[in-house]
TrEMBL record:
Signal peptide stretch: 1-18
Record-given protein name: Glycosyl hydrolase family 65
Glycoside hydrolase family 65 central catalytic domain span: 307-502, 528-600
Keyword Plastid on entry: no
InterPro entries to which the protein is assigned, alphabetical: 6-hairpin_glycosidase_sf, 6hp_glycosidase-like_sf, GH65_N, Glyco_hydro_65_M, Glyco_hydro_65_N
Pfam families attached to this UniProt entry: Glyco_hydro_65m, Glyco_hydro_65N
GO-annotated biological processes: carbohydrate metabolic process
Keywords: Hydrolase, Signal
Domain Glycoside hydrolase family 65 N-terminal: 36-163
A single GO molecular function term of this UniProt record: hydrolase activity, hydrolyzing O-glycosyl compounds
């Protein structure tokens, strides 16, 4: 699967340690390469195996609308993450380097690539998406001369060729004695919705001890409308080093009225701050994030896998943004166009709510900020309350492609959101938030379900013509998870009303108590009205047991597990096995729980770092939804944690025999630590 380096690599006259521990994943094999994201919740930079290159940059919540597809797409921004380096006139490329090595430092959110160029130089390059300067990236480079060499370095801004009317400039701004060289590209997004501006410059840490303040002359060249470059030449004496950085800032009219000027200011800020100051701020914020952590002793592979999953959720979110997280986070535009699904509320939100309430608050606020479009959508489809879109973008309107039945019919997402809101209150006990944002949304969600159900002659209620979590069965009646989620959302709305002293609508309780949960004759829960044992895309019925706790007796839980596990499609996403893992752990069956924990993500890992794809047969990554599922297996399964109206509690944790201990720290608002030992 992945090839990890466990030894010391002797590179020319230097010794570079390929770290491979609980915080670092190293590789020296790039023959089968799927990148991982270096991200800060606002921009994402996808790594590349090519020396001094970034594959692409993704801009969170910046959408452009394709008039042909008639849906919005999150923007791939201008790529400021690529540099060219020439040594003695020859361009560095995959073909002429040796001892290539990459190390992902999850603790500091940094990716370091190092290599040798012949017997002349050793180069290392570390990429950061600065957490403290969220619209900027920082690439720190060191060239160690093993012989005297002439070096040429070119920093670039590459504008995607789909962009409109690109304009490329270079200017040296001056304030008194301070000079500030700024490379800049400005263009309209591919379909004209936004103006995008990217600025970049070189930063000199020091040249060497004898030429501390000497800066090379910069040369500007516009290669094409889509490639704007800035270069310098420098001679490095034998056994001396060249240390510099390339930094870029990218702003759009989504976030700034004047993105051109703001991108310049951000680059100037980086230029005129020291490397130590910039990186100290970045690392301090990541230290805060890692106050919420999962520590596995005795199984390094599981520790790395879990940390990489948690790293990506942290990297894709921000506590100060009121933004959500798309299934692929800030790694890839496709599939799903960077839209927001139930993936957030059901799969990513619960582990983040346990470990980082700031990011969790952004995720719920993303929905409350889009309540009004959801209310309008309910009216448009003949319902009351709020009807949230299956795929959401910055507008809060439905962004699903029209051909997909999920757009008009996958309604459980409206319940999923209401459930997430009550769980946020359960953990934070923030009554002000509940009064101002939580309950107003939960009320509209409950009103939607009252208007959505159909009354039957026997006093029960059905929810007809839906696409459930099992999307292999469209347009069915009484889907198990849809009905269970609606029941739960109605119950939680009643609790929320009582919590803030408002009389709940009595219809919420009446309907919740009488929505159908169908059964086969032997008592097994039935996936929908006409279900007859077909293959399913992912867990649906079993979600009634976790997280909904509607099917709560052990006999039925196990019966449902045994019936539906063999029905899971090999082509479906892996989250279903996460649910099975949790449920087996809660029944005390640790062997099956661990087996399914591993099956929920290992087949989907991509070399060399273990980036998760949605299904085992694809390499679209990083699949943040799968990360959320596997983390839930650890937290809610082995860790025994649970959301209750009394807060977070622990019930019957269980430890796989492969682990010596499990420590979960930073849980809840009081940062509790839970430890399970063998």
């Amino acid at each position: 699967m992945r090839k990890i380096l466990f030894i010391l690599l002797f590179i020319s006259s230097s010794i570079i340690i390929a770290q491979n521990d609980e915080w670092h994943i190293s590789t020296n094999d790039n023959s089968d390469y799927t990148g991982i994201a270096i991200a800060n919740g606002r921009i994402g930079m996808l790594s590349s195996s090519k020396p001094l290159k970034i594959k692409h940059i993704v801009l969170n919540n910046v959408y452009d609308v394709d008039p042909n597809l008639k849906v919005s797409q999150v923007l791939h921004g201008m790529n400021f993450g690529n540099l060219d380096m020439f040594i003695d006139g020859e361009k560095i490329a995959e073909e002429n380097i040796t001892n290539w090595q990459q190390t992902m430092d999850m603790k500091d959110a940094a990716l370091t690539t190092s290599f040798d160029y012949k017997d002349k130089a050793t180069v290392s390059c570390t990429v950061y998406a600065l957490r403290n300067l969220q619209y900027t990236g920082y690439i720190d480079i060191r060239v160690e001369a093993l012989k005297e060499v002439d070096v040429k370095v070119t920093g670039k801004i590459l504008t995607p060729k789909e962009y409109q009317t690109p304009k490329n400039t270079f200017q040296i701004l001056k304030d008194v004695e301070t000079t500030m060289p700024i490379l800049q590209s400005v263009a309209k997004s591919p379909f004209g919705k936004h103006l995008v501006s990217t600025s970049g410059t070189f930063i000199w840490h020091h040249i060497n001890s004898s030429r501390e303040h000497q800066r090379p002359e910069l040369k500007h060249q516009i290669i094409s409308e889509y490639e704007n470059t800035l270069s310098f030449d420098y001679n490095i004496k034998k056994n001396q080093n060249l240390n510099f950085a390339w930094t870029g800032a990218q702003c759009t009219t989504k976030n700034f009225s004047d993105p051109k000027s703001e991108s310049e200011r951000m680059v100037i800020f980086n230029l005129l701050n020291s490397k130590d100051v910039l990186l100290a701020g970045h690392k301090a914020l990541w230290d805060e994030l890692w106050q919420g952590d999962i520590i596995i002793e005795g199984d390094l592979q599981s520790q790395q896998d879990v940390r990489l999953a948690l790293y990506h959720l942290y990297a894709f979110g921000r506590g100060d943004s009121d933004l959500s997280i798309a299934p692929m986070g800030l790694s890839l535009q496709t599939p799903y166009n960077g839209h927001i699904f139930w993936d957030t509320e059901l799969w990513m939100f619960p582990p983040l709510l346990l470990l980082n309430q700031d990011i969790a608050r952004s995720l719920v606020n993303y929905r409350s900020d889009r309540l009004e479009p959801a209310k309008k959508r309910a009216i448009n489809y003949g319902y009351k309350g709020a009807m949230f879109p299956w795929e959401s973008d910055d507008t809060g309107e439905e962004a699903t492609p029209p051909f997909a039945l999920t757009g008009p019919f996958e309604h459980h997402i409206t319940a999923d959101i209401g459930i997430a809101f009550w769980n946020y209150y359960r953990v934070t006990q923030n009554k002000k938030w509940l009064s101002e944002k939580g309950y107003p949304l939960m009320k509209e969600v409950a009103d939607f379900w009252v208007s959505r159900v159909t009354a039957n002659n026997n006093g029960s209620y059905s929810i007809n013509n839906v696409v459930g979590a099992n999307e292999f069965a469209p347009n069915v009646n009484d889907n198990a998870f849809t009905n269970g989620a609606a029941i739960t959302a109605l119950q939680f709305a009643t609790k929320a009303a009582n919590e803030i002293g408002i009389a709940p609508n009595p219809e919420w309780q009446l309907v919740s108590e009488n929505i159908n949960i169908l059964k086969f004759e032997d008592g097994t829960s039935k996936e929908h009205e006409n279900y007859n044992g077909e293959i399913i895309k992912q867990a649906d019925v079993n979600l009634l047991s976790f997280p909904l706790n509607i099917v709560a007796d052990k006999e039925t839980i196990v019966k449902d597990l045994k019936y539906y596990e063999p029905k899971l499609s090999k082509e479906g996403p892996a989250m279903g096995k996460s649910i099975f893992s949790i449920l087996y752990a809660r029944q005390g069956d640790v062997d099956n729980a661990y087996r399914l924990f591993k099956e929920s993500y290992v087949p989907n890992q991509q070399a060399p770092f273990g980036a998760l794809s949605e299904v085992a047969t694809s390499n679209f990554s990083y699949f943040a939804t799968g990360a959320g599922g596997m983390l839930q297996s650890v937290l809610f399964g082995f860790g025994g944690l649970e959301f209750t109206d009394k807060g977070i509690v622990q019930k019957d944790p269980i430890l796989p025999k492969q682990w010596k201990s499990l420590t979960i720290k930073g849980i809840g608002t009081d940062n509790k630590i839970y430890r399970i030992d063998r």
